[in-house]
Amino acid sequence: MQAHHAGADEALMLDPHGFVATCNSTNFFIVRKGQVWAPTTKYQMPGITRANVLRLCREQGITARELDFSLTAVYGAEEAFVTGTFAGLIPVISVDGRAVGRGARGPVTERLQECYATLMDECVVRGRAALRD
């Protein structure tokens, strides 16, 4: 309700210990010092798109960590993004009215968006080829 009243597209949800857990319909990530941080899956569904992004990080040599982190870490992040089945990978430009990083899509997010788009294109080609066989 707070996100709706604030005019936000998504809401961050915290776990019972006050750590960032997830969003209401997407999985949340931040980038700090070039590392991708994802909340642990203790209090969220481990999404397929989330798993694909973590795999892409490994394949691209981007350090990705699944850990508990606070809103303070989010406020100090260089970048943030969300993932979801329909959304793919979308940059987050502000949280609680505070700009994340420069308040625009960052280079790690952009790189992962490009890698994710390539992965989806490859999946489509494989799917179409399987239909022809």
Report on the biggest sheet. 5 strands, mixed
Strand order of the largest sheet: 5-4-3-6-7
Briefly note the CATH topology name. D-amino Acid Aminotransferase, Chain A, domain 2
**How many independent structural domains?**
1
Q: What's the total number of strands?
A: 9
What order do the SSEs take from the amino end to the carboxyl end, as H and E?
HEEEEHEHEEEEH
Give the termini separation: 49 Å
Pfam families: Aminotran_4
GO molecular function: transaminase activity
GO biological process, one term: carboxylic acid biosynthetic process
InterPro entries: Aminotrans_IV, Aminotransferase-like, BCAT-like_C, Class-IV_PLP-Dep_Aminotrnsfr
Nutshell version of this structure?
Its cofactor is pyridoxal 5'-phosphate. With 133 residues, the chain is of the alpha+beta class. It has helices spanning 2-6, 48-60, 71-75, 107-132, and strands spanning 12-14, 20-23, 27-32, 35-38, 64-66, 79-84, 88-91, 94-95, 98-99.
